[in-house]
C-alpha cells in the first residue's frame, strides 16, 4: 500500500527525475501549465495525479521503467 500525502513537493520530485518541465509534464500526461501551477503551489495535484507523484517520489524512474520512455 502506498501512503498518499495530502500535499506533495512537485518541483522536488521533478528535479529528482532530471527532466525539464515540458518533458516531465509530457511523461506524466499533464499540461505544462498544470505542472507549473503545482510547482508554484497555486494548486495541488489530486486523484490519480497525486498517487502517481507519490510513487515517483519513491522511485523517480517509475515512468520510464513502466512505460519504457527514454530518460
Automatic annotation (TrEMBL):
Gene3D superfamilies xrefs: lambda repressor-like DNA-binding domains
Q: Which UniProt keywords apply?
A: DNA-binding, Transcription, Transcription regulation
Q: Which InterPro entries match?
A: Cro/C1-type_HTH, HTH-type_reg/antitoxin, Lambda_DNA-bd_dom_sf
Q: Which residues form a coiled coil?
A: none
Looking up SUPFAM superfamilies in the UniProt record yields: lambda repressor-like DNA-binding domains (SSF47413)
Q: Which residues form the HTH cro/C1-type domain?
A: 10-54
Q: Which GO terms describe its molecular function?
A: DNA binding
PROSITE patterns under this entry?
Answer: HTH_CROC1
Q: What is this protein called?
A: HTH cro/C1-type domain-containing protein
